[in-house]
């Protein structure tokens, strides 16, 4: 993962590029992993009289919750984005949910706007909202499954997230390889030091046993590459 940016600290252009690349790679994984299982993306449909299971959230809900937790207050009572009844006070709320709707539409469009869950109990479930004129309105689930029903659409944008994902994995592999090489080098130096001390102390049995134990542990940490490095 990219290095987190501290509060009140502006990200550099390089850090920003890495964050965007990592996010695009994550989104590629989300759509790739859930393409054949709508519950993994949309979450499990909760029916009347059912308790909401802790495993009901899909990938989309998890992404949505992460943004709420990241931008909301981290201390009780978690006002603004951190709490359901105050979230809409923060203008970020509308951008987040607009993007959630777009991701839902992207997934639905790729599946030909198929109604994934056909339980009538779920489709007929309703919610009460105040509309833009402050009038109380009731909206059913079946009327909200595609944006066209709500009076808007999203433009179709083609993004080569698969290419971004491959690029991201390649860079991460290079970074991990670099870290591993540095770690192995340090362990190799440590091994040489322990072996040197082991030879110096010779017959001092207690010290030698302790040092030799460290040598064994270090060799195990180095694995099959220790001969080449040490």
In a nutshell, what does this entry contain?
The protein is mainly alpha-helical and 230 residues long. The chain has helices at 13-34, 38-42, 59-71, 92-110, 120-123, 161-201, 205-222, 226-229, and strands at residues 126-130, 136-140.
Describe the model.
This protein folds into two domains: 13-113, no CATH class; 163-229, no CATH class. The protein contains eight helices and two strands, in the order H-H-H-H-H-E-E-H-H-H. By secondary structure, it is mainly alpha-helical. The model is unreliable at 226-230 (pLDDT under 50). Strands 1-2 form a two-stranded antiparallel sheet. It is elongated, with a radius of gyration of 27 Å. It is 55% helix and 4% strand. The chain has helices at residues 13-34, 38-42, 59-71, 92-110, 120-123, 161-201, 205-222, 226-229; strands spanning 126-130, 136-140. Residues 116-155 form the Polyphenol oxidase central domain. Belongs to the tyrosinase family. Its cofactor is Cu(2+). InterPro entries: Di-copper_centre_dom_sf (IPR008922), Polyphenol_oxidase_cen (IPR022739), Tyrosinase/Hemocyanin (IPR050316), Tyrosinase_Cu-bd (IPR002227).
Beta fraction: under 5%
Measured distance between first and last alpha carbons: 31 Å
Uncertain spans, ≥5 residues at pLDDT below 50? Answer: 226-230
Q: How many helix segments?
A: 8
Structural class, by secondary structure, is mainly alpha
- Biggest beta sheet attributes: 2 strands, antiparallel
How many runs of DSSP E, i.e. beta strands? 2
Q: What is the approximate shape? A: elongated
GO molecular function: catechol oxidase activity; metal ion binding
Family: Belongs to the tyrosinase family.
Cofactor: Cu(2+)
Keywords: Copper, Metal-binding, Oxidoreductase
């Amino acid at each position: 993962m990219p290095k987190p940016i501290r509060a009140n600290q502006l990200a550099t252009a390089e850090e920003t590029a890495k964050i965007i690349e990592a996010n695009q790679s994550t989104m590629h994984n989300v759509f790739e992993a859930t393409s054949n299982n709508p519950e993994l993306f949309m979450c499990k449909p909760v029916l009347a009289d059912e308790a909401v299971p802790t495993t009901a959230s899909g990938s989309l809900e998890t992404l949505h919750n992460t943004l709420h937790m990241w931008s909301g207050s981290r201390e009780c009572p978690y006002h603004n984005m951190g709490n359901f009844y105050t979230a809409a006070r923060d203008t970020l709320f509308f951008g987040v949910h607009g993007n959630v709707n777009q991701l839902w539409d992207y997934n639905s469009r790729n599946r030909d706007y198929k109604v994934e869950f056909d339980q009538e109990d779920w489709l007929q479930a309703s919610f009460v909202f105040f509309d833009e004129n402050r009038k109380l309105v009731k909206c059913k689930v079946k009327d909200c499954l595609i944006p066209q029903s709500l009076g808007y659409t999203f433009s179709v944008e083609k993004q080569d997230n698969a290419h971004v994902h491959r690029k991201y994995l390649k860079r991460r592999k290079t970074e991990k390889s670099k870290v591993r090489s540095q770690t192995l080098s340090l362990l190799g130096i440590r091994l040489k030091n322990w072996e040197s001390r082991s030879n110096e102390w010779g017959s001092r049995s207690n010290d030698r046993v302790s040092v030799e134990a460290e040598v064994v542990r270090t060799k195990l940490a180095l694995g099959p590459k220790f001969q080449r490095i040490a």
